[in-house]
Amino acid sequence: MIQLDISLPRLFAEGLSDLHIQADLESGSFTALIGPSGSGKTTLLRLLAGLEKPKQGKMVVNGEVWLDTDKRINLSPQERSIGYVFQDAALFPNLTVRRNIQFAASRENATLVDQLIAETGLEPFINQKPVALSGGQRQRVALARALVRRPTMLLLDEPFAALDSEASHQLRQLLLKLHQDWGTTTLLVSHYDTDVAVLADRVIRLSQGRVQSDQTKAQARIKAISPSEPIRQIYFDEAEQEWVIQTDTSLLRSRNPTWSELRINDYIQVSPLFRQD
Amino acid sequence: MPIDWGPIWLTLRLAGITTFILLFIGVPLASWLALSRFRLKPLIETFISLPLVLPPSVVGFYLLLAFSPTSWLGGWLLDTFNVQLVFSFVGLVVASLLYSLPFMVHPIQAGLENLPSSWREAAYTLGQSPIRTLWYVLLPNCKPALLTGIVLSFAHTIGEFGLVLMIGGNLPGQTRVASIAIYDEVELLNFDTAHTYAVLLLGISFLILLLVYGINKRVTI
User: Fold this and answer.
1) A107 touches chain B (CB under 8 A)
2) Distance from chain centroid for Cα A30
3) Where in this chain does the record put each ABC transporter domain (chain A) (predicted)?
4) Model confidence pLDDT, tens digit, residues A48-94
5) Which in A81, A111, B51, B181 has the greatest CB count within 10 A?
6) In this structure, are residues A154 and A147 in contact, taking their beta carbons and an 8 Å threshold?
7) Kind of pairing between the strands at A30-34 and A202-207
């Protein structure tokens, strides 16, 4: 069980405010963090990883205190059992694929490195440097590297953002398999509804640094009453380069180009996970 | 025409030793400046950069006062280690270290600051210490900046004149470097010898810079 209650002053689109997140995460769960840009999703991941220092808060991971500002406890990123996949993969350009994955592994973990290389399908590229890899391959290396220390918590910051649909699909399948096989508690920041629907068993929607809604798939299923809803508003958000659809219950965002064909009063099916009620 | 090669070797020795020592001072200092959020960092950066804007005679004058056996520092060095910094090769090295420090620190600091912060953070989340991250991730990825720092320090030390004259004077074999020798020969109206020294310095500097630009183009990560 991961218990967190943290706050940090932060500048949001609407002005300076406190990011304040309070949540309990089941061990082995897969939670998606969704919400508009600047709502604090990445900041929350960075706080969990110890890359940002909160003003106040407490974080207990499987009984171990990682953060307690009252007791002046704040474990460094090195001391926390985490794997972090950055949006840009953050692979080390001077190291080959194998050495990138090996970099964090202890000597006893040589077989683990081979196992991860095999599971992520990276054997053909082990002697190549990151510059020679595609976006999807880089994210697979980043994922393998993040898992090599057998982390308690796997933090994924928009790993699908720069991938085409085929590469995204492959990475999603791989991610789901590794999450299940390795038993990590996984947090995924994503803008893509498909990622969330396929992967997450819980969806936390953030807005202005606060939890706006928090639903598990089971809760969502119970609430699934109406099969479809009319579109009340649809427009293209130039800043985010994505389509935005407002229904009576939901605000949906996607970069899916087929959304351009939708019109006001068209009926669409909305996954209960995205409802704002 | 035969010339005394002493000043040329002395110049290269001074530049070589200065650059070698600066590498060990400059890399940690530049790394700390690039990665630290220390509040007094601007003050330290200002001190390091002072030789860039001050005339060499000003730096030389204050170092001369500091190194003098009658000063606290000069007296202590003489009494404790029997080292005299004024009018000695060791004094030239120490003065050159201070004078060429920004030429080593600035390129490396800029190189490190330009790397994506996610590389450093990724290494930290992989359990790596800041020193291991610096050694295995950050420095190997800013080789051009390291090379620029090394070459600029070397080339700048070769070209020193005012500071050397103030601290070292003109002692053959000890402090008479090539730039001083040129000045000396011109004063004696030996233009041919001055010309030979000048061409040698020009050639060395040109070759060094050519080497840097050539290597920097080829350096791939």
Assistant:
1) no
2) 9
3) 2-233
4) 999 988 888 889 998 889 988 888 889 999 999 999 999 888 999 99
5) B181
6) yes
7) parallel
Please count the structural domains in chain B: 1
Using CA atoms, how far residue B175 sits from B41, B58, B167, B189, in Å, is: 35, 19, 9, 21
B126 to chain A, any CB pair closer than 8 A? The answer is: yes
* Mean pLDDT, residues B53-76 taken together: 89
If pLDDT is split at 50, 70 and 90, which confidence band does B4 have? Answer: confident
Q: Label each residue of B54-73 as H, E or C.
A: CCHHHHHHHHHHHHCCCCHH
CATH number where B159 lies = 1.10.3720.10
A76 close to B (CB below 8 A): yes
Instruction: Give pLDDT tens digits for A150-193.
Output: 888 999 998 877 777 777 777 788 778 878 887 889 999 987 76
Task: Say how far apart CA A77 and CA A66 lie, in whole Å.
Answer: 10
Q: Are A186 and A179 in contact (CB under 8 A)?
A: yes
Residues from chain A that touch B116, judged by Cβ atoms under 8 A, are 88, 90
- The partner residue sitting opposite B140, judged by closest CB among A91, A94, A131, is A94
CB–CB of B124 and A90 under 8 A? no
Residues B5-62: tens digit of each pLDDT: 888 899 999 999 999 999 999 999 999 999 888 888 899 999 999 999 999 889 889 9
Cβ distance of A90 and B116 shorter than 8 Å: yes
Give a yes or no: residue B70 inside a domain: yes
Distance between CA atoms of residues A60 and B208, nearest Å:
57
A79 → chain B, closest CA residue: B127
Look at residue B1 and tell me if it is in a domain: no
Judged by CB atoms within 8 Å, which residues 129-158 of B form the interface with A?
129, 136-137, 140-141
For chains A and B, count residue pairs whose Cβ atoms are closer than 8 Å: 61
Directed axis angle between helix B6-35 and helix B191-218, to 10°? 40
Domain of residue B54: give its range: 6-216
In the predicted structure, residue A224 carries a pLDDT above the cut 60: no
> Quick one: average pLDDT of A256-265?
76
Residue B193 lies in a domain: yes
Name chain B contacts of A138, Cβ cutoff 8 Å: none
Q: Judged by CB atoms within 8 Å, which residues 108-127 of A form the interface with B?
A: none
Of the partner residues A76, A93, A145, the one whose CB lies closest to the CB of residue B141:
A93
- Residue B118 has its nearest CB partner, among A80, A88, A145, at A88
Mean pLDDT, chain A, rounded, equals 82
Q: Is residue B221 part of a domain?
A: no
What separation in angstroms does the CA of A246 have from each of A162, A205, B49?
25, 16, 57
